[in-house]
Amino acid sequence: MSQNYTIALLPGDGIGPEVIKEAVKVLGSLERGLELKLTLNEVPVGGAAYEVDRHPLPPETLKTAQEADAVLLGAVGGPKWEKIDFSLRPERALLGLRSNLKLYANLRPAKIFPALVDASSLKRELVDGLDIMVIRELTGGIYFGEPRGVELLADGTRRGFNTLVYTEEEIKRIARVAFDVARKRNKKVMSVDKANVLEVTGLWREVVSEVHEEYKDVVLEHMYVDNCAMQLVRAPKQFDVIVTTNMFGDILSDEASMLTGSIGMLPSASIGGNTAMYEPIHGSAPDIAGMGLANPLATILSVGMMFKYSFGLEEVNAKIESAVEAVLDQGVRTRDIMSNKMTEVSTQEMGDKVVAELEK
Ligand code: IPM
Ligand code: MG
Hints:
360 residues, alpha/beta, Isopropylmalate Dehydrogenase, 2 domains, ten-stranded mixed β-sheet, two-stranded antiparallel sheet, binds 3-isopropylmalic acid, binds magnesium ion
């Protein structure tokens, strides 16, 4: 019996549509090879949606996402929309999708491909074999805390404020995700906080330790965020799973990604609700949009994560990862990962190479 899955496609802005196009090729190839029936529902998001509906996350887009089995998103944002009201910026669409779909856990793997070890900004011996999973809390913390805003004081000057808040339940559920993921890896969790200064992350540390009682087979350690930022560039291979708050995770996952050579290589999964969302972690890169220079591999690897986490087909993820690895081993590179003696290809050619590898 063939399986049916509905995927909401949200290409978005900048290089989003180009990289999604390559991912769609891969989906088509998988559909042919695996007796799957995939229904792709494409809807606008971010600036592209704002142009049509004057809103970055129109109700139709949200509904299509909610009704799908999984969401694949390209990227949102660009200089064109930088001056519009905060509440209507393309980036708000991401936050709206995360909170409406209840995607409280963001998995951002930073895994190095052997062929790209020399593209890292760190020495080969520090990153060879690197495989870290950053788990970022995604629907709480300072990104969503109230009160927030900018107010006018009596003396005519302004005061801006946001609130960093976590409930015990929010901490417990993200901790469980981290321990569950660690169980399938090297069974080590580093919980990152700023417990020496912020009460809320003192609570974070306490609650993560309490949840750990149920996961004695996993090793738990704690680290302050400033030290973690430093350790990531000093000795990154000490980490297996890192679990942290929304904003610390935003920052540390960018840092971890760069260790692998290119942010253009890294996929992500946002899970926790009924429908999970998958996206490359690079942004919309408006400077290279439409030029065929974007690296589609992060989006293609995000498709792999979709099969693993949403459809329970871990072997499809493995197949995609091997295809990407094989293409890199052939010396094929998009410009962001280009180096000496390699062959530079366009976004589209890279997609074709992966499909050819999948169909071998
Ligand atoms: C990310 C991005 C987003 C975030 C922005 C675009 C809202 O930086 O997904 O890491 O801060 O979460
Ligand atoms: Mg970020």
